[in-house]
Task: structure prediction
Amino acid sequence: MRLSAPRITPLEEKDWSDEAREQLGRSLESGRVYNIFCTLARYPKLLKRWLPFANHVLFKSALPPREREILILRIGWLCQAEYEFAQHVVIGRRAGLSDADIERIVAGPAAAGWDPFEATLVRAADELHRDAFVSDATWQALGARYGVEQLMDVVFTVGQYNLVSMALNSLGVQLDPGLEGFSRWRRA
Result:
């Protein structure tokens, strides 16, 4: 973690406003509210406006879950957002990513063993991170399989998780219990 303690302490459930409780009700029902949401509970108006977009990207985008998670994990790694990366290792595994896939995500688009299209997804994340732009060659390779909505979702997925990575790093959101941080993947 970039910070060993939060800059903004997560708000305990007993201290949530009615507005925060309304936004996080589903998380309460599942029995676990993650540190990111307890931190954002300190700013319920932001949480209310951010959640619909975040939910679109994570649950309703036109991208297949495995491909979405490749993009998210890559931008999380590039931003060195340990919290984001650790959460999405879990989600990525549920979406079908293996540990070998995650090691390739860490290594980048030139890593041995990539499916060519998945390497293109990693390259798109790299280009967006580096240049805030997808090159023509990468765009054309994505467009060979993706329609307009999926192409847009590639850009918005990387952008959303770049934003989230900046917030997590800067706010000092700490790993939730049970998550493994970067130490496992640094050897990759």
The chain has a mean pLDDT of 95.
